[in-house]
Specification:
This protein is about 25% helix and about 30% strand. With about 120 residues, the chain is α+β, with helices and mostly antiparallel strands. The longest helix is centred in the N-terminal third of the chain and has 20 residues, at about 1-20. The protein binds zinc ion.
Length: about 120
């Protein structure tokens, strides 16, 4: 249900913009989504569609850009490649350093940001 919470927050953020600008509809919303959130764009769109139904945001398409995370080994003091296990627990994933086996620390790749919303504003 993680995607539902994010979808609700996106709807709330864009609706305040819609109200502020007197827009009648919204066509698309650019969202940056952290890699570690572990969400598929299509799952987020489905959750958004439910939340947006009956609002001016109904029918808007989400353009999701994934913001990558960086994994750093505290022992080697270097960034390391990592693979995320596909899980639906939405906890910070565990990964180990391929060189020394220490647990990697993740930087970035969390949360989401609404970058832009394409609003339809009708001329008065
Ligand atoms: Zn290491």
């Amino acid at each position: 249900m993680h995607e539902t919470i994010i979808a609700q927050q996106i709807v709330r953020a864009v609706r305040s913009e819609v109200d502020a600008r007197g827009a009648s509809a919204c066509r698309s919303i650019d969202v940056e989504l952290g890699q570690l959130e572990g969400l598929d764009a299509k799952d987020l769109q489905a959750a958004f569609d439910l939340e947006a139904a009956g609002t001016p945001l109904d029918g808007a398409r989400l353009q999701v850009t994934t913001v990558p995370a960086t994994a750093v080994c505290p022992s080697c003091k270097a960034a390391k490649p990592f693979e995320l296990p596909h899980s639906h627990t939405h906890e910070i994933p565990r990964a180990v350093c391929p060189d020394c086996g220490a647990a990697l620390e993740f930087r970035g790749g969390r949360g989401f940001v609404v970058r832009r919303a394409a609003l339809v504003v009708e001329d008065p």
